[in-house]
Amino acid sequence: MAEKWNLTDIFASLDDAVVESKGLLKICQVFRKCYEGKIAALKPMYFHDCLAEYSVVRAKLCRLDSYAYLVWSTNLTDKKICAFYQNMQDVIKKCGKELAFFEVEICKELNYANVILPDTSEDRGRRAWLKKCLKFKPYTLSTELEQLFTEQQMVADYWVRLYNEERAKFAITIRGKEYNEGELMQLYNSQDAALRAEAEAARTKWYEDRQDLFALIYNALLCSRKIACQWRHYENDVHASVLSNDIDVDDLENLVETVSGQDAAARKLAHRYHALKAQMLGVERIPYQDRLAPYPFEQEGTRYTLEEAKELILRTFTEFSPQFAEVAEMFFDHDCIDFYPRQGKADGAYCMEMPVGVLPRVFVNFNGYVEDVDTLAHELGHAIHEHLSKKYGELGREKSCAQAETASIFAEQLVFDALLKAETKPERRFILLAKHIEETIATMHRQIAFHRFELKAHQMRDEGEASAEQLSAAFKEVMDNYLGPSVDTIGVEYVWAGIHHFFEYDFYVYSYCFSCCVVNTLYEVYKSGRVNDFAAKYMEMLQCSGIENYRLALQRFGIDASSPTFWQDGMRRLEEELSELEVLAKEIRK
């Protein structure tokens, strides 16, 4: 098991990827020449062949795009690689321009009733993909305009690149040692409150000094997204995201109200936890950087080696399902994971999708903390999901963001439960449970706060350019709402500039909360034992995630996702864990 991933099964070198990109553009041009203006007139057999050919092209594009991002995200300070990444993005956009006609003609001219596809797994995937395309029929423009918007996205990508490369310059010296942002975050786990305060002050100052630049970048991206929204006549700014996630606008609004409404019981759970932490830390209000700080009785230095983390995760997955663990082990054995933080490597974690026939890649910044073990399990859950969903082919593996987060959160929950079950000491049990609750709050409440910030940012952009001061004020407002009166949010207003999701995606963050609620309900069913062959049905659900939405997926477990109380039910597990934590707190304080 190597510390860095091996990408040679994707491309042997950057030069090979460049050669592939040139040939790929020609393939797309030939595809357009063969089929443009003819989709509606194709006989069923020839349309099937056309769709199969399109699947192959999409697989090649995915391979090139994913490889470029993998190389770039681990070498952000390498100018040659940054230029390579941008060049590949430009080629991919040019390919997209050549292919734009295909989905336009499917939406505007194809009679779906005349489509005949065999009943194979791959063709079931293609059938599901076609139905997803047709949902966008009212919002699809002419081929020429779709091509224009594809090319216009190339300009937006430069803004995203500028943002990421600027953040990659993050370098802070604390007590004589220089840290990048990923390394600096380790200091927030220190028992030294003064050190945590120094780290937060330096980090806040770094972002404060760059607020105007980041505000300019974000305004440019908001403007680009707004233009596309208006031309396509979406009902609102979030409409495209909701369609992509295959959920109703009402579902999302109910979720947001459930988590963040002024009188919402779920919102008060976050406030209740922060009040408990303030008591345990012996302060009236927790400084913002200490909301995730270790407790006084927490043993600093409780860490896991990479081997220990691997053994724990695979053992836990095996207890759930040997097949689940077997798939996860492949990513270790085939060097598909980049583990440790280093200079020039982006912070955070992700799982990168790959086309059929290539294993997904996992990106983490492992420092050995419990949270890092959870994160590794989370991203492996994504990788397992991505691998299994390939059963339905290149088009059939495409899943919504909301569904994509389900497997990762479920995997993380499995590992947490294993950690908690093995611990009997009240202090250590308290720590594990508290960390898990903090993670859940970050997944639910924090992400909905981020979503509400995005809504406010879009609203401000309707009135003109949103200043750094306006963006900061809006961010502080939503953070105050979720953190509650027990957290001092001085300095939090600058944090928005460090949330890469705002810049790289539009209305993505709510997917985490959405999936967390789904998983909480699903996990309760699993623990209850009332569904026979749960693991097998769960694996089937992951395989089918590209061809069915979450409501249909949950029916196999007897869960009615259309229930008016569905979202509130998804909060029950958090409330139970918080109640147990409060009991442990009383025991510890005796």
Summarize the structure in words.
It is a single chain. The chain has 590 residues and is mainly alpha-helical. It has helices at 14-35, 44-73, 79-108, 121-135, 143-168, 181-184, 193-208, 211-232, 239-244, 249-260, 265-281, 306-320, 322-333, 370-388, 393-396, 401-421, 426-462, 468-483, 500-504, 510-528, 534-543, 550-555, 566-569, 572-589, and strands spanning 172-174, 177-179, 286-287, 337-338, 350-352, 361-363, 487-488. α11 (265-281) runs parallel beside α24. The longest helix is centred in the last third of the chain and has 37 residues, at 426-462. It is globular, with a radius of gyration of 24 Å.
Describe the secondary structure blueprint for this structure:
Elements: H1 14-35, H2 44-73, H3 79-108, H4 121-135, H5 143-168, E1 172-174, E2 177-179, H6 181-184, H7 193-208, H8 211-232, H9 239-244, H10 249-260, H11 265-281, E3 286-287, H12 306-320, H13 322-333, E4 337-338, E5 350-352, E6 361-363, H14 370-388, H15 393-396, H16 401-421, H17 426-462, H18 468-483, E7 487-488, H19 500-504, H20 510-528, H21 534-543, H22 550-555, H23 566-569, H24 572-589
Helix pairs in contact: 1-2, 1-3, 2-3, 3-5, 5-8, 8-17, 11-24, 12-13, 12-16, 13-14, 14-16, 16-20, 17-18, 17-20, 17-24
How many runs of DSSP E, i.e. beta strands?
Answer: 7
Category by helix and strand content: mainly alpha
Mean pLDDT: 92
**Major sheet: arrangement of strands:** 4-6-5
Shape descriptor reads: globular
**Whole-angstrom Rg:** 24 Å
